[in-house]
């Protein structure tokens, strides 16, 4: 979900690109980016419907969250917010209670195994304070009463282009690969107050596992190993062989 088409905005001097800093080191709007909800499709109603699976029958699969009780889900939210709310389109807002209730619906409907929730906005930790569903690990760029600040301005377009927290998160993830042994504890410590100028909040009481033993690839870009073979394989015989190996 991206509410603004920044890559194709007339003010963007570099069409079809969005960079993480003024030196144009990382194009975060690369060839592999898929935007399923854009512009005025990005609304509180559509966001809640997407999470809970309450979408119209004719909704294409690309606009559905096709998950089940075995799925690990990453939710990343950023924008303007305050104590207990996040704005959508500067015309409506989702509250912390609405978000908490949506996640509970997901749990009741067996739509996830674990959720990693990230939010980058002012007073961001207020958005996870009302969570009450199990298996949720949450982090926020600022505590209640704190602002979440921008990193630097791009003089070519005259605006701040990235928040401090997101900047350091992206920097961390750029050095993590599918075979990475980095853990969620390392991720949660990616932006100390000296770098963020705000206090990063973490809530782990709903999460059953020890974050120090959870690889970041459980939520970020894990790639399953694939073996290519030209030999015929009897797929009906595989369950039998696995059962024999266990015995």
From TrEMBL:
Name the pathway: Glycolipid biosynthesis; glycosylphosphatidylinositol-anchor biosynthesis
Kindly list the biological process annotations in GO that this record carries: attachment of GPI anchor to protein; GPI anchor biosynthetic process; proteolysis
Cellular component terms (Gene Ontology): GPI-anchor transamidase complex
Keyword annotations of the record? GPI-anchor biosynthesis, Signal
- Which molecular-function annotations from GO does this UniProt entry contain? GPI-anchor transamidase activity
Q: Which Pfam families match?
A: Peptidase_C13
Superkingdom in the source lineage: Eukaryota
Hey, which family's this protein in?
Belongs to the peptidase C13 family.
User: What is the official name of this protein in its record?
Assistant: GPI-anchor transamidase
- Which species? Diatraea saccharalis
